Amino acid sequence: MNNDLGTCNVLDPDGLADAAQLLVDFNREYDEPAPEPDWLAAHLAKLIHAGDTSVLTFGTPGIGVAVLRFRTGTWTEAQEAYLAEFYIQPAHRGKGHGTAFLDGVIAHAKERGATQIDLATSADDEAARHVYEKRGFDCHEGGPGGPTSFYYELEIN
Predict the structure, then answer these.
(1) What does 68-136 look like in DSSP terms, one character per residue?
(2) Sheet holding 4-10: strands in order across?
(3) How many helices (H) and strands (E) does the chain have?
(4) Which of 40, 91, 95, 96 is spaced 20 to 30 A from 156 at the CA atom?
(5) Global pTM?
């Protein structure tokens, strides 16, 4: 089996089965509900077709997956990106793959015209926070020294 771990792949709507399985594995690792991979692959294809989403994998075969959602900024015409999902399989963590993959994700966001990326993670996910902070992500408004930023969510049924 050829395993090229240095490859960041931007997926087209026809190649989403592995990405969907990685996302399902991600949710199951943290005991979160997850749809069936076939449904998720079809849903991701719809999001890509809509033009505001990119799905990327890392490695061949994929050991990581990322989902970027793009939007036009409120105060400028520039694109902003939301890193909705970012996952590296447990056996491949702590080896620099997350950092390399994040570099590829950032490069892709720049290629799509994004001038900033935002994301959310939990305070107890120190490994993820370390990867993000290593690449300059900051959880303080206006940068280091500013007030801590908070991410809130509300389920609307």
Answers:
(1) EEEEE-SSSSSEEEEEEEEEE-GGGTTSSHHHHHHHHHHHHHHHTTEEEEEE---TT-HHHHHHHHHTT
(2) 4-10, 53-60, 64-72, 79-88, 114-119
(3) 4, 5
(4) 40
(5) 0.92
Closest CA to 118 of 96, 93, 151, 145: 151
For residue range 7-57, what is the model confidence (pLDDT) as tens digits? 888 988 888 999 999 999 999 999 999 999 999 999 999 999 999 999 999
Domain count for the chain: 1
Which run of H or E residues covers position 65?
strand 64-72
CATH number of domain containing 81: 3.40.630.30
Evaluate whether 70 touches 117 at the Cβ level (below 8 Å).
Answer: no
